[in-house]
Amino acid sequence: IVDDYIIYMLNALRQNASEIVAVVNGTLENKSKDKLLSITNNVIERENKGFDVWAYKTALDSYGWHKLEQFDEIVLFNATIMGPVYPFSEMFEAMSKRDLDFWGITKFHRVEHDPFGHSPYPYLPEHIQSHFHAYRKSVHTSQAFRDYWDSIPPINDYYDSVGLHESLFTKRFADKGFKWDVYVD
Questions:
Q1: Is the distance from CB of 98 to CB of 112 less than 8 angstroms?
Q2: For 49-71, what is each residue's pLDDT tens digit?
Q3: Do 13 and 88 contact (CB within 8 A), yes or no?
Q4: Cα 33 off chain centre by
Q5: Of 22, 142, 158, 164, whose CB neighbour count within 10 A is largest?
């Protein structure tokens, strides 16, 4: 079921995006599919496996790396956020003025232990929360980005989703020299 807040958010995003692909982890009822098709004809229904991480991978794979090179910025977000409260254009405009390779809306601050059991560090690094990531061409055309998504491990549960992807992506790419920030710190 696609709730109305999803349609509100996608309509707001459409004002700031040249293309939208909607990836659904599951099977859509007809009414919900029609709602999504009113916004984009690029709707992918997939098995409910891999959480948002594999939905993101599915969206990227559906375009392919060559076509993705044509985009200035790629935004991956999921339905665990609601909004916008203020127009997305304000956020995109503010972030466009920052010299960054990738960005998000909110940051999860460093935790001195790893509650997920996947971190190669003795702590959980500060990171952009995975409900909204924007990747500029400087990062999404890099071999490091492609290798990351081409070799992402299976995500079997919430702990894998946060522990193998969300909590580590920001540090991994910052360590490679890519600049990042969040809109709301």
A1: no
A2: 999 999 999 999 999 999 999 99
A3: yes
A4: 21
A5: 22
Q: Give the tokens for residue 100.
A: 């960054």
Q: Rounded distance, CA 139 to CA 180, Å?
A: 10
pLDDT average, residue stretch 174-178: 98
Indicate whether this model's pTM tops 0.70.
Answer: yes
Residue 183 tokens, joined = 């809109």
Residue-wise pLDDT tens digits, 75-98: 999 988 889 999 999 999 999 999
Instruction: Decide if 123 contacts 101 (C-beta within 8 A).
Output: no
DSSP 8-state class, residue 124: B
Work out the mean pLDDT of the chain and round it to a whole number.
96
Residue 85: its H or E element: none
Report residue 108: phi and psi, to 5°.
-100, 125
Residue 177, phi-psi category: left (phi > 0), alpha (psi -120 to 50), beta (remainder) = left
Number of continuous H segments (helices) and E segments (strands) in the chain:
9, 7
Beta bridge partners of 75: 134
CB 113 within 8 A of CB 121: no
